[in-house]
Amino acid sequence: MSQSQNLIEASTDRGVTTLALDSPATRNALSAPLVAELADALSACGKDPAVRAVVLTHTGSTFSAGADLKAPPGPYAFVDLLRQIVELPKPVVGVVEGHARAGGLGLLGACDIVVASDAADFALTEVRIGVAPAVISLTLLPKLDQRAAARYYLTGERFGAAQARAMGLVTAPAADLDGILDGLRGASPQGLRASKRLVTARVLEAFERDAEELVQLSASLFASAEAREGMTAFLERRDPAWRL
């Protein structure tokens, strides 16, 4: 497996392949090229019998700032990436050491296990630019506490690692990572595949039932006048017109 790619940094240690989003200049925004490279790297991991598990992490201070507003992936490409993580026949462990926003939380929702340092923080910021966390609801809503989801979907507030654990986004503190990986290294490949199918079944039901409707909702919101104002305001670093 290649040790470096343009936007994904890959390394392997004792059967665990680490894929790091490696575009710190854009805060690892989910551009079309980054999504495509990550999909290719995951596919290689899924086919490699030497890979027992995958760690998905980041370089720089941001796990992901969400969709790249200048070069976004197509909505179907992003849905396919989320589903690929959920269906990968190897467990995927998300590791967050910094900021995670919007679509970045969708990636974490697709992971089987997520650990976060005390310095990590999170926000579902879509509502602040005139859209909604539509597509990423496929991986988030089956896992999140519903009261917490309502609060952070509707307000766009930031929250820390402790709240992320309480609401179901994060599994454990970063200090638990070595023990988690040791457990995965001791598990049989067949056992991991079968166990992952059990714990992801409900998420995959959401893909079958809701994916097309959520893609269409996302597309209609991003094409709206409010979203154009919201994205323009974000890029110009000013308040949108609706700010009270």
Automatic annotation (TrEMBL):
One of its GO terms (molecular function) is catalytic activity. Transmembrane segments: none annotated. It holds the Pfam family ECH_1. Belongs to the enoyl-CoA hydratase/isomerase family. This is Enoyl-CoA hydratase. It comes from Streptomyces showdoensis. The lineage of its organism: Bacteria, Bacillati, Actinomycetota, Actinomycetes, Kitasatosporales.
